[in-house]
Amino acid sequence: MDYKLKSVEMHKKYKGKLEVRSKVPITNKEELALAYSPGVAGPSIEISNDSAKVKSLTWRANVVAVISDGSAVLGLGNIGPEAALPVMEGKCVLLKEFAGVDAVPIVIRTQDVTEFIETVERIAPSFSGINLEDISAPRCFEIEQKLQERLDIPVFHDDQHGTAIVILAGLINAGKVLGVDIKKERMVINGAGAAAIASVKLLHDYGFGDIVMVDSNGIISKQRNDLNTFKQEVLQYTNKENIDGDLTYAVKERKIFLGLSVGGILKAEMVKAMKKDSVVIAMANPEPEILPELAKDAGARIVATGRSDYPNQINNVLGFPGIFRGLLDKQEKEITMDMKIRIAEAMASLVKYPTENKIIPNPFEKEVVRVVAAAV
Fold first, then answer.
1. Which residues pair with 317 in a beta bridge?
2. How far apart are CA 189 and CA 323, in angstroms?
């Protein structure tokens, strides 16, 4: 199936994926008076006297804003706010269908960090959570941090933390399949954007001790003088031997390859140079860093991608619906590193008997949302 063509046809047919429906009937004057004037003055006065009642008297207790500026949409890049809207709609549909969380897609026509933060801050009273989405690095780090400081509701950049959590869950089960302590295996991460930097921090906190990161200019090392603040920071967790070189050099004798970069960059010869029974997680979309069949032929034991047409799909939908369900139910504001590790471990535990082609649960398994929410 040509999913892109079929998706255009579906979106054209339905004119998007979302609609607003009333919870209450309005079929007579009495019902109208309760829903609107004059009755609606009652809850407004209650909230005016005690603002905390907004969560019990409006939909705010269960509604999240999914917000983007369109600067880093899927694998499409900086395509702007209008083009980002179908993706934000899709995120909202998943929140509702998988976790019963109401969600509103919002795209903002600015890529100025200060303007974006101020806009979100001003609309925040309408929501109980903010899901930042498809915002380019390094801007996304500052945006998330400042909004977390300014707002009294959870702010979660799913491209960073959701991706990192699901990757960790997959690696935990990969270790079980291989019969090794996966934390002790040597890893190379190709890519240094939002998801890669969040992943390396989480993996380090979990206990991975030997990680090398590679960006478009080669291995991130202390010798480099072109590193931004965030890449300099990851040197605290990576490249303990301070090696230099390109991806070809970086993958040699490494057990794990984690790709959060661009399609086709990992060659079969590179996989052959990795440690025996390697783990290849190739997350670039729509074309992964290497196709699973090529990686397997080159000697990889376990291969995962972000695609649904191959086994072991590492997909954020395993995480964010349950994460927001848990955050809203418990009225938690902060998403800590310990919480992320608990979520990953809980997610991994859903696969009772991991195999090479099953290291991660399927998003349609009903227990996923409940278990993730409970971990929160």
1. none
2. 25
Q: What pLDDT was estimated at residue 245?
A: 96
Burial of residue 352 (CB within 10 Å: 0-12, 13-18, 19+) is: exposed
| Active site annotation includes 352 | no
Which residue ranges of the chain lie beneath pLDDT 50? none
Contacts of 103 (CB under 8 A, 6+ apart): 63, 64, 65, 66, 91, 92, 95, 96, 131
CA atoms lying within 13 Å on the CB side of residue 246: 6
Q: What is the pLDDT of residue 9?
A: 96
Half-sphere exposure of 312 (CA within 13 A, CB side): 27
Is 255 labeled as catalytic in the residue annotation? no
Cα dihedral sign, 59-14-97-123: negative
Strand 278-282 and strand 256-259: the pairing is parallel
Q: For each of the domains in the chain, give its residue range(s) and CATH number, in order of start.
A: 49-153 (3.40.50.10380), 159-322+332-376 (3.40.50.720)
pTM over 0.90: yes
DSSP letters along 47-71, please?
Answer: HHH-GGGHHHHSGGGGEEEEEE-SS
**Given the residues 36, 184, 252, 272, the one annotated as active site:** 36
* pLDDT (0 to 100) of residue 223: 93
